[in-house]
Amino acid sequence: MVPSEENQLVPKEVESAAEEPRVLCIIQDTTNSKTVNERVTLNVPASTPLKKLFEDVASKVGYVNGTFDLVWGNGDSVTDMTPIDQNSDKTILDAGFEPGKKNFLHLTDKDGEQPHIMQEESGTTEDSAQDRFIGPLPREGSVGCTNDYVSQSYSYSSVLSKSETGYVGLVNQAMTCYLNSLLQTLFMTPEFRNALYKWEFEESEEDPVTSIPYQLQRLFVLLQTSKKRAIETTDVTRSFGWDSSEAWQQHDVQELCRVMFDALEQKWKQTEQADLINQLYQGKLKDYVRCLECGYEGWRIDTYLDIPLVIRPYGSNQAFASVEEALHAFIQPEILDGPNQYFCERCKKKCDARKGLRFLHFPYLLTLQLKRFDFDYTTMHRIKLNDRMTFPEELDMSIFIDVEDERILPHLLSSFLQNSLLYELFSVMVHSGSAAGGHYYACIKSFSDDQWYSFNDQHVSKVTQEDIKKTYGGSSGSRGYYSSAFASSTNAYMLIYRLKDPARNAKFLESHEFPDHIKQLVQKERELEEQEKRQREIERNTCKIKLFCMHPTKQIMMENKLEVHKDRTLKEAVGIAYKLMDLEDAVPLDCCRLVKYDEFHDYLERSYEGEEDTPMGLLLGGVKSTYMFDLLLETRRPDQVFQCYKPGEVMVKVHVVDLKTESVAPPISVRAYLNQTVLEFKQLISKATHLPAETMRVVLERCYNDLRLLNVSSKTLKAEGFFRSNKVFIESSESSDRHMAYTDSHLWKLLDRHANTIRLYVSLPEQSPGSQFRRSVYQKPSGDTSNLDEACERVKGPAGNMKSVEAILEESTEKLKSLSLQQQQQEGDNGDSSKSTEASDFENIESPSNEIDSSASAENRELENQIQISDPENLQSEERSDSDVNNDRSTSSVDSDILSSSHSSDTLCNVDSAPIPLANGLDSHSITSSRRSKANQGKKETWDTAEEDSGTDSEYDESGKSRGETQYMYFKSEPYTADEGSVEGQKWLMVHVDKRITLSAFKQQLEPFVGVPSSHFKVFRVYASNQEFESVRLNETLSSFSDDNKITIRLGRALKKGEYRVKVYQLLVNEPEPCKFLLDAVFAKGMTVRQSKEELLPQLREQCGLDLTIDRFRLRKKTWKNPGTVFLDYHIYEEDINISSNWEVFLEILDGIEKMKSMSQLAVLSRRWRPSEMKLDSFQEVVLESSSVDELKDKLSELSGIPLENIEFAKGRGTFPCDISILEIHQDLDWNPKVSTLNVWPLYICDDGAVIFYRDKTEELMELTDEQRNELMKKESSRLQKTGHRVTYSPRKEKALKIYLDGAPNKDLTQD
After folding, report:
1. Which residues contact 653 (CB under 8 A, 6 or more apart)?
2. What is the per-residue pLDDT for 1043?
3. Given its phi and psi angles, is residue 966 left (phi above 0), alpha (psi -120 to 50 degrees) or beta?
4. Closest CA to 762 of 997, 472, 1067, 1019
5. Where is the composition biased (Acidic residues) (predicted)?
6. What gap in Å lies between CA 803 and CA 195, rounded to an integer?
7. Could you write out the DSSP letters of every residue in 230-286?
8. Which member of 90, 379, 564, 949 lies 3.0 to 4.6 Å from 94 by CB, making a disulfide possible if both were Cys?
9. pLDDT range class, residue 15, cuts 50, 70, 90
10. What one-character-per-residue DSSP string does 49-101 give?
């Protein structure tokens, strides 16, 4: 509801001369989940007594008066829970109702009891008490039928009661209105329904679920005997082999009719009904050709199930006025003359002839399809013809029989002579909408009472003959060219007539005439319906509410839905919840209870002491669709006693902080009142925690990172911002810290760290044996760099004198360990926390050499060699070196932790000094400001820049100082054993880190564990779907990460500022798959295309086996699969070529020297079409100096040898390689466009890579036999489907309508 909707004015209605104001009442039934979204409207005089209002409401909603309450509501919310006095004689005006405005009321339970349903009245003797359904009666005006297509909405309760017409509707599954229309028509056909009833299903021979006749039989029985308003068709569609997706496919009703009849014929083979479809619906006609010279006639007999009638003749703007006119046109012969002459077998030459159709036999049930769907070749779209076409109620088909035809069937001639080919209309299937989609419904005449009914899905209503005439279509004015465009879109699509023959016209079988198997089926369906009613009654009286429980041993919060009858007691409900949560082996039943709980605020609202025998309906406030609260199954130990939770209390989770151990204890729950003072609250906590209240400091966490010290003892908890559920931290020590300013205190810094620390799981890359050496070399003791130099010199020495990697590793590690131990001893003397020296296996695990990370490509292998042989100065300049910034100490804090082989490293990200205790290490304002604002200060932000788009921010500022140095951030790591699903041998770290740390600083902290500098590994964030995305914005914090997120580390050079990761694909123009992925590369801003090609050469050689020279290939733009602009060697990225993150380019290998030298040139891909051979040649590139069509023709003539005047060309359509069927290319393309330049309509060739087909206009098209054409069609269809190209034009992909006789579709991937 929009704000102040209740104050909006509504139209006032006056009552005759008195002009008494009326009151609009909108009542929402909140007693049942099925009716909660329904609203009942009453417009009553202002003088109406309240007592009469209740009577009117009861009558309207179908409840017994006096079994429900009405309360004031404000739109969707209840404003006053006080019920309106239903026995009062006061008028509604005196009771506060306002005329001219919307008065919202909520219908609620009375005394916790559901309203009683008013028993349905019935006028038949068969409708006994047990046959009456349970549920609200249909609302007045809630059901209707319109002739124009309207998306009908209905409530579940309206489906429960039968229409006043006595007929039952069908529920639309989603877009199955076409199916519902046909099923209702077949049901209302006496001959078809009776024949279906006579067929008996043998369960031993077939599965009832997949038997189409049996499911149709069940549906017809329900349509005839059910008391529901509408029934489902899902069982029928399931027997077709359809899944739920088919319900969202709209199909043609005439197509469905044919497919269903075929399926029934297959199912009815070797039964009495085997020929039923043909007996009822099949007619015969003769297709003939008569020579006008000798009179010889060739002919064949065809059968038909329906007659398709053209609405508007081809090429004409005038539609046929009536069905009779269209039928005459259907049998009107045409003259074959000129180039269309007929080869006469008798004359042995081509002669003028007459070709046409003659009806030989009309079926008992005549189906006429009005062909309203056509194809507009101007717009290349399907269209619907809405022209007016009348149809008679009685149709005389005798005028369409050629009695002189000797092949006319004898019985049809006899019927004709007796003038009995008179048909009566009984079904009109109507389509409303356009060719793109719409709605079907059926208007059907009952042969029982000759009354017309509209069957519009679940709605059935009476209609008149005038309503039928409205389906003629068109407009009332004269018919002209534009009449269809402005006509109504609701018109008849299929007409079904029945022959008027008293001897054959059948009546519907009555219930006493049913065969025995149908009587048994009726009884079975009735029992199922009764069972459904009882289940609905149980559902209406079942309370469904969310249930939570903290498992006493697993300590995880479990969630479920508690379903309990409203008459069950609280004690019984506890037993049900106990079993539901599976606590039998965890805690005794008598140690459990249910309490009122608010899961959103994690708040225990109240407990139910002494109400064990109270019904749940009363405790929960009745049966409702949704509850504003939840239930918690609370548990206790046998030696504990449950606490009493009173309404109005607030819950506080108290965490005790220990400054000495820098720990925060798990919460203790305490309940308090909002009017308590802070002093009283401290005393309350003191009792719960046994800590002194005098020295207690209480910090309230009101929201994220809002830590407020409660230091005014006289203030109430409400004034301090306490709410339903609260979280506080307390510290009660005698330390001097409590005398410091709060934001400078150790307590604040500890809580600040606690609030911002997240836990991440980091998957480390598998290491080759050489990586252990790299890791040791990278542990740089800056006080004495000789170890590093010595190690590097060993590598640079002659191969014969080279020590083994293991020896180097052992020697250098021992030296580093001794240095580390000396530093730890010094730190211990200075009072700093000592590090554990226990041995760890975590850093000494080696992976087999062949288990290299998938991303460790040639560039990574090159990186390994580079690190092993480069000198320390280069290594320091490439990346921040610990020895460069920490030359005042012997070992960095992180290296110290690693080399001491402890299982965890707990240190601050302070690179300027050794580890410092937390109290002195954290800055007093450690909530860091955004690094990006500083990095981009004075710089225009654009998504095209490397800093913004690729996120490759520099890790250092202009002075070379690491940006991670500006703040001290918390980082703690330890080995972690991952779940069972992880890869065997995969190494994991569990990291606790301050999420205000930048990605750059985070990577620096991970360097010792990965074993390479941070510029040589990449960080990938793993999402819930196991998708991985690289994190590249080095100056952004980890604030977007949350607890338990997973991170994968992969070896490979990380991007620097101005660099972009580029995917390189090979362009293979003459291969079936022209786009082949090669490798990932890195291009930099300011780099020329030639420089990028030089960098690609070794990677192509090592990774792809392509041994190329720099002039043997080119790079070009890639848009999806289309090749574009050719990049010239002197082009510069970002200046001449726009580049972005995850950019894609084509690499094209050249056959000769590069012809593209200038941007003024244009490179197109040409392909010759040879119509005499029905084949396409391979692609050949043509380089043009201009956009001239004459130059293109010159080049094509020179290339192919075709004379210039005979060259015809056409532009290819769609995605490269612009595949098209060779059966269509000759006529479907726009050959030889009348333009002089290529960059104008309809060509628009302005960039490299366009596809041009060309041909010799003097070359004749090969004549194909039917066999050759069919064979070629199969090959082309298979070829084009494999390449993903459609064979023919289609504006949207339509799923073929199929009925599967085995109940399930075959998984044929070659067919739609």
Report:
1. 602, 667, 668, 669, 670, 725, 726, 727, 728
2. 87
3. alpha
4. 1019
5. 944-957
6. 96
7. EE--HHHHHHTT--GGGGG----HHHHHHHHHHHHHHHTTTSTTTTHHHHHH-EEEE
8. 90
9. very low
10. BHHHHHHHHHHHHTB-TTSEEEEEEETTEEEE-SPP-TT---BTTTTT--TTB
Check if the beta carbon of residue 1250 is closer than 8 Å to that of residue 1211.
Answer: yes
User: Whose CA is closest to 1225, among 1177, 1155, 1275, 1175?
Assistant: 1175
In the chain, the largest separation of any two C-alpha atoms, in whole Å, equals 127
Task: Kindly state the tokens that stand for 68.
Answer: 């429900």
133: left (phi over 0), alpha (psi -120 to 50) or beta: beta
What is the model's pLDDT at position 943? 33
- pLDDT at position 30: 79
The residue to which tokens 């369409």 are assigned:
400
Q: With the C-alpha atoms ordered 910, 914, 915, 916, is the resulting torsion angle positive or negative?
A: negative
For residues 1226 and 556, give the distance between their C-alpha atoms in angstroms, rounded to a whole number. Answer: 70
Helical spans, DSSP H, in 448-569: 465-469, 516-540
Query: What's the CA gap between 632 and 625, in Å, rounded?
Result: 19
What positions carry a catalytic annotation? Answer: 177, 439
Q: Does 1217 sit behind a cis peptide bond, omega within 30 degrees of 0 on the bond before it?
A: yes
| CA dihedral (1241, 1246, 1247, 1248) positive or negative | positive
Q: Residue 835: how many CA atoms within 13 Å on its side-chain side?
A: 30
Helix (H) or strand (E) holding 1047: strand 1045-1051
| Residue that the structure tokens 């001893």 belong to | 825
Contacts of 913 (CB under 8 A, 6+ apart): 889
Sequence letter at residue 874: N
* pLDDT tens figures, 1250-1264: 999 999 999 998 888
Query: Is the pLDDT confidence value at 572 over 90?
Result: yes
Beta bridge partners of 334: 355
The string of DSSP letters for 565-629 reads ETTSBHHHHHHHHHHHTT-TTTS-GGGEEEEEEETTTTEEEEE-TT-TTSBHHHHTTS--S--SS
DSSP 857-913: -HHHHHHHHHHHHS-HHHHHHHS--HHHH-TTSSS-HHHHHHHTT-S-EEEE--SSS
Whether residue 294 has pLDDT greater than 60: yes
Beta bridge partners of 1136: none
User: Which helix (H) or strand (E) segment is 331 a member of?
Assistant: helix 323-331
Could you tell me which of 857, 868, 882 has the C-alpha nearest to residue 769? 868
Rounded Cα distance, 512 and 502, in Å? 23
Q: Single out the residue of 431, 429, 425, 439 nearest to residue 386, CA to CA.
A: 431
Give the DSSP letter string of 163-205.
-TTS--EE---SS-HHHHHHHHHHHT-HHHHHHHHH----TTT
Using alpha carbons, select from 1125, 1105, 1115 the residue that is nearest to residue 1067: 1115
Q: Which residues contact 690 (CB under 8 A, 6 or more apart)?
A: none
pLDDT band at 896 (very low <50, low <70, confident <90, very high): very low
Query: Backbone phi, then psi, for 718, in 5-degree steps?
Result: -65, -40
- Rounded Cα distance, 329 and 318, in Å: 13
Give me the numbers of helices (H) and strands (E) for the chain, helices first please.
Answer: 30, 51
**Residue 115, preceding peptide bond in cis (omega within 30° of 0):** no
Burial of 466 (0-12, 13-18, 19+ CB in 10 A): exposed
Report the length, in residues, of the chain.
Answer: 1312
C-alpha–C-alpha distance, residues 1168 and 1208, integer Å: 10
Instruction: Give which of 876, 966, 969 is closest to 915, Cα–Cα.
Output: 969
What gap in Å lies between CA 40 and CA 676, rounded to an integer? 47
- Integer CA distances (angstroms), 1278 to 735, 844, 1273, 1282, in order: 83, 57, 9, 6
DSSP string computed for 961-972: -BGGGGS--EEE
Q: What's the token pair of residue 1032?
A: 């590249």
3-state secondary structure 980-1025: CCCCCCCEEEEEEEECCCEHHHHHHHHHHHHCCCHHHEEEEEECCC
